[in-house]
Every structure is written in structure tokens, then in C-alpha cells.
């Protein structure tokens, strides 16, 4: 059976069962409508713009803040770690049960234990998720060394078994986010038939291998190959940092849309700017004051009562690594912000560079960074 029809049957079946019962609560309505909203999103002619899942970044407060800036069309949770003794992490579950975006939200899992993945998927189906997503792309060594995330790309046969089991267990959209290989993209040609065979509803392709991390150019030709080969929609992921680059990647890959991660941390206006550019309108550029206001809102949104001031300032540096490369070209801002310890020091550096009304393109500068720097290499 066609999976779009299956998902539609699932949602309409829910409506039929409840048609002669009490009115549905808001939570029940979200549960029923999320997969239908997802399917409707994929059927529309406009490109789908998705916020990429980023562990310890795309939590509930961050999703709420992104939605206030125009937001994406589609969101994905941080990954649920799945193993024999795991249960869905409550903070990530709150992103689903309290979804503040007004948009479909997919729940992502990472792991290789098939019974545990099935059990977790069924637990997640009790919540208003739009789809279940399998992570085949995380490049963190702590993940791939356990043969999870991008580590599974070394074992196509194991991927085949996981996809088969999950497709049978999931009666709403089932999606995959992948890289093009572990250390050799040649395996991608072996993976594409597996994705087609198991009738996934959406594939997101980050156009690098796991070994390349984020430091190489993106191989958009592999993403285009997926879009031309698979019966399901494909999203392109990797180095989409501006409205013009978004249009270029869409043209080059012929995909149904884009998934954007690090650039959205730097520029929360990016999704709306892309929509404006694709509509033939000049994208609105934030001023320095707008960016300063965003950093203040991010600071407050991510503040946790139990954190000391110095701990929260240190946590903010994770975000500032990405924001900073779009502020000025010398690296001075990043140098000083990384050495701030107090809230006063932190915002003094921000104000020094952003207390103005000049427009801020927020496109990344090619900073002269050390090879060991987290942002070194192809950070565009």
C-alpha cells in the first residue's frame, strides 16, 4: 500500500472512531492531525524548509524562539538515545507534548538495537509526532563508535534489517536522515535501494561522509542522485547559509526542500529570508540592534535556574561560535566572547559590535581559524 495513503488512512481512521464520541481535546487533535499536516506539507509545491535536529541545541526553549522569528515549516527533536534499557528522555518528550512551533514535529531516534527501536517508536506514537525519524548521520565519535548514527553506514545489511522492522512497526510517516557514507560515498548507491524498498516517506541527505565531519565541501551531486532516484521527497542538508545559497542548492539538487542547522543558530531570520527570496522579494536584513536583541532573547530562553551565571555564560558560547562568524571578519568578536566569564562581560562584547542600526547579512566570514577550532574548514 502506498505510504501516503496509509498515513491518510491512519488519520482519517482516528477521526472516524471519534466521530460519535466526546469532542477531542487539543492534545488528541494534535495527535491525530500531526501526520496529516506532515503529508500535506510534502504535497505542496513550495520547497519545505526544515530546522535540523542538533543535540543539546534544538530543545524546547530553542524551538519556541525559532518559531517567533518566522520559523521553519518542519521541525525535528533532538535524538532519543535508544538501547536495551532506554526510555524516551523526558526533556525531549516535552518538545513534543508542548510543541510551541505550530508546525509538524518529527521525533528522531538513534541506536541499532531493533527490539529497543521498535519499543521506543511505539512509545513515541502515543504522542503527537508527525513522523518517526531514524538518525543515520550523526558524526560524533562517541556515537559512531557504538555503531549508531553515522556508524551504521558501515553496515548496510544492518540498516536494511532496521528499516524493515521499523517500517512494519510504524503506521505514521517514517523518515531517515543520513550522510552519504562513513568514509567512502560509494556505499550511497547501495543505500538508495534500501530506502526505496522500505517505503520511507522522506529522506534528508547531508552531503558529506561521517569522516568529513563539517570541514569539507558538500557533495550536492549525491543529494541530487537521491532526489532523482527515490520515490519519496528528499531534503538537502549542508552549508545552506543564505537565501541565495538556498536557491542555488535547490536548483542544483532538485530536492523538495532544505534542512538547515547551524546557519539557523546564527540567523533565525533565515527561513523567512529564503521564502522572500524565492518569491522574488528582497530579503529583510536584521540590524545590529536586532541581532543583539536575538542574543538577549536566546540568553534568557536557555537560562536554567540551577545554573550559575558563569555556567550559563559558558553554555552561551556554544551558540556564539556560530553567531560570531557572521558578525565581523577579523575573529576579534569570537576571541573576546570566548573569554567572557560574566553576563556583564558577555554583553559588553556583544554591544561593542552590535549596538548599531546597520543591516547585518549574517553570512559567515572566512575567518583565519586554527585547524583545531570547531569552526575551522568549510563553515559556509
Commentary on this structure:
The chain has 380 residues and is of the alpha/beta class. The protein has two domains: 3-278, Aldolase class I (TIM Barrel), CATH 3.20.20; 288-354. The protein is 46% helix and 11% strand. Strands 1-8-7-6-5-4-3-2 form an eight-stranded parallel beta sheet. α5 (114-124) runs parallel beside α7 (156-169) and α10 (243-253) crosses α12. The longest helix has 18 residues, at 26-43.
Q: How are the secondary structure elements laid out?
A:
Layout: H1 3-18, H2 26-43, E1 48-51, H3 60-68, E2 75-81, H4 90-97, E3 105-110, H5 114-124, E4 131-136, H6 141-144, H7 156-169, E5 174-179, H8 188-197, E6 202-206, H9 220-229, E7 234-237, H10 243-253, E8 257-260, H11 262-266, H12 270-278, H13 288-301, H14 309-324, H15 332-337, H16 343-354
Parallel strand pairs: 1-8, 2-3, 3-4, 4-5, 5-6, 6-7, 7-8
Helix pairs in contact: 1-2, 5-7, 7-8, 10-12, 13-16
Compact description:
The chain is 46% helix and 11% strand.
Assign the structural class, choosing from mainly alpha, mainly beta, alpha/beta, alpha+beta, or little secondary structure: alpha/beta
Give, in spatial order, the strands making up the sheet with the most strands. 1-8-7-6-5-4-3-2
Radius of gyration: 21 Å
Shape: globular
Q: Roughly what is the average pLDDT, rounded to an integer? A: 91
Q: Which architecture of the largest domain would the CATH scheme give at its second level? A: Alpha-Beta Barrel
Instruction: Quote the distance from N terminus to C terminus.
Output: 41 Å
Biggest pleated-sheet summary: 8 strands, parallel
For this structure, what is the CATH class of the largest domain?
A: Alpha Beta
Number of domains: 2
CATH topology of the largest domain: TIM Barrel
Helix coverage percent of residues?
Answer: 40-55%
Amino acid at each position: 500500500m502506498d505510504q501516503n495513503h496509509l498515513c491518510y488512512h491512519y488519520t482519517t481512521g482516528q477521526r472516524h472512531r471519534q466521530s460519535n464520541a466526546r469532542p477531542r481535546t487539543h492534545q488528541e487533535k494534535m495527535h491525530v492531525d500531526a501526520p496529516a499536516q506532515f503529508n500535506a506539507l510534502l504535497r505542496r509545491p513550495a520547497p519545505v524548509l526544515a530546522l535540523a535536529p542538533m543535540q543539546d541545541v534544538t530543545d524546547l526553549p530553542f524551538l519556541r524562539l525559532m518559531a517567533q522569528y518566522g520559523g521553519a515549516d518542519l521541525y525535528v527533536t533532538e535524538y532519543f538515545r535508544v538501547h536495551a534499557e532506554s526510555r524516551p528522555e523526558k526533556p525531549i518528550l516535552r518538545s513534543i507534548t508542548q510543541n510551541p512551533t505550530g508546525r509538524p514535529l518529527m521525533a528522531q531516534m538513534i541506536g541499532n538495537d531493533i527490539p529497543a527501536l521498535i519499543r521506543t517508536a511505539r512509545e513515541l506514537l502515543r504522542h503527537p509526532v508527525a513522523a518517526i525519524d531514524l538518525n543515520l548521520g550523526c558524526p560524533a565519535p562517541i556515537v559512531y563508535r557504538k555503531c549508531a548514527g553515522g556508524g551504521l553506514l558501515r553496515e548496510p545489511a544492518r540498516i536494511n534489517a532496521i528499516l524493515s522492522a521499523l517500517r512494519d512497526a510504524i503506521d505514521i510517516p517514517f523518515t531517515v536522515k543520513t550522510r552519504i557514507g562513513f568514509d567512502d560515498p560509494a556505499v550511497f548507491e547501495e543505500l538508495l535501494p534500501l530506502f526505496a524498498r522500505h517505503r520511507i516517506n522522506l529522506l534528508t541527505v547531508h552531503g558529506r561522509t561521517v569522516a568529513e565531519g563539517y570541514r569539507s565541501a558538500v557533495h550536492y551531486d549525491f543529494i541530487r542522485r537521491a532526489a532523482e532516484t527515490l520515490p519519496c521527497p528528499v531534503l538537502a542538508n549542508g552549508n545552506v547559509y543564505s537565501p541565495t545559497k538556498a536557491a542555488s542548492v535547490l536548483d542544483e539538487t532538485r530536492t523538495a526542500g532544505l534542512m538547515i542547522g547551524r546557519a539557523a543558530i546564527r540567523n533565525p531570520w533565515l527561513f523567512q529570508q529564503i521564502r522572500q527570496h524565492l518569491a522574488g522579494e528582497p530579503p529583510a536584513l536584521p540590524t545590529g540592534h536586532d541581532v543583539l536583541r536575538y542574543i538577549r532573547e536566546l540568553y534568557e530562553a536557555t537560562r536554567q535556574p540551577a545554573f550559575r551565571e558563569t555556567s550559563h555564560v559558558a553554555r552561551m558560547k556554544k551558540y556564539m561560535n556560530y553567531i560570531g562568524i557572521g558578525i565581523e571578519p577579523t575573529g576579534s568578536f569570537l576571541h573576546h566572547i570566548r573569554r567572557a566569564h560574566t553576563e556583564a562581560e558577555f554583553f559588553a562584547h556583544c554591544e561593542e559590535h552590535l549596538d548599531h542600526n546597520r543591516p547585518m547579512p549574517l553570512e559567515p566570514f572566512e575567518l583565519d581559524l586554527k585547524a583545531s577550532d570547531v569552526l575551522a574548514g568549510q563553515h559556509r
